[in-house]
Amino acid sequence: MSDPRFRALVRRKRGVSLVLFGISMALFFSIPLISSYFPEFFNVRIFGEVNAGLAYLILQYVAGGFIAWKYAVLFGRVDQETAALVAEFTRKR
User: Fold this and answer.
1) Stretch 2-25: mean pLDDT, rounded?
2) Rounded Cα–Cα distance for residues 10 and 8 (Å)
3) Is the pLDDT at 46 greater than 90, yes or no?
């Protein structure tokens, strides 16, 4: 399709994918980086037996769930706009 609205949707979808992928990879790869260069960070006690390493690990799951939810919401909107654009395009033919 040469419709500029379709190209804009493709760019938006690519942008959403890249941003969310970048955030998830930054969180994932930060674990080996932090443990290599700042290992004492993971030993910092927060309260009781909970240290920063455990809290960061739990944060990974929370962030992963948030990213998955955000992905579903944003792509749901893009999919609705795509469906409307395709329906409009097919009506014209």
Assistant:
1) 90
2) 5
3) yes
